[in-house]
What we know:
Helix content is 50%, strand content 12%. By secondary structure, the chain is α+β, with helices and mostly antiparallel strands. The mean pLDDT is 89.
Amino acid sequence: MSDTIHKTTFTMPIGPIHPAIHEPIRLDLSIDGEEIVDVDVAAGQVHRGIEWIGMNRNNPVQSIYLAERVCGICSACHPFTFVQAVEQAAGIEVPPRAEYIRVVVAELERIHSHLLWTGVAGHEIGFESLFHLVWRVREEVMNLTEYITGNRNSKAMYQIGGVRRDITPEQGPQIQTSLDYYKNLFDELKKLLLDDPIVKLRTQGVGVLTKQDALKLCAAGPTIRASGVAKDVRQDFAYAAYADLGVQAITPDMLTGTVNGDTYDRIIVRLLEVKQSIELIEKAIAAMPDGPIQTEPKIAKLLALLKKAEGEAVARTEAPRGECMHYVSMKAGQDALEAWKIRAPTYANLVAVPTMLKGQQIADVPIAFASIDPCMSCSNRAVVVDRQTGQHSSMDGEQLHALSVEKTRRLNPELTRK
């Protein structure tokens, strides 16, 4: 009798609707017993056609509201990036005071997003008391956001050429009170998240992404920083008021002295970034200059200015999940955008998911996948619509690649000659 043991692998799908993964995505796992030997990430479960809708709005200002709804959690980073792209294409300069207010709103969103993720992480490992505690703590930043913007989530603060509402001196004490609340709570959160044996057992060594793999796979945000890569758009390509405030990319070795690139390190990075956001808000409030908050407060004049604009631009911001990019193209005499393209951070981080999951146990999939803080609605936006019939259809990767090659050659005659 042969002593050779033949291993048998099975394919186990998780999603697109699954109680352990709260995002519309399917993970096809090839498993050998409880071990994951291969992973196929099947995105494309959500198609809303936001970019197409935005290009068919009457003007770019109307598209701001669509940008705010690309993501239900990050409702500041997308309009922030979008308005910057339009401003670059149209040659609009933003008042300094507006740049500081933009930073305050963006950092409030980072606090809210990271705390929301921390609660979800607790839920994924069955630590429900952690989930409820962190989400209760998160209410303070939600209330502060409502106090400043009028809304808890859809903030409607960003306008092309500035912001819609000011932060007044009278609001200063309440803002500081909320920030002090988190400063006083930080050590307790740190102890709960980093010292608890359950959290350590379920996150250390889980979902490892080495520095080399993170760079090779072009990961973004806390995912790549937790692998030891000090990459942050606010630091590397400072925009708005970040150049004045000074931002240092957070890596886990700042706290522990080591980098493992696992889920535990991603908790460290997000926790430290909450503290960093508090400090940035305090700096921004203290250094905020006087002056107008909009380049052109009269909407009719702003629309007339935008209609004359011609050009294209790419804007980048550091969203809570990582680098967010918006591309716009504008044509003189045309009210609506000529083109609008979004690349959300989850789109980049999904490429790293198979590497993170291979060799893990099935039980580790929910927390390992959740550790990139995925947002599939951010990533899935493409839909093709026939203007005449109104019929729409989604496209696979090969079709999109073929279209991109054809478009590149059409726009660049040099490539055609070659």
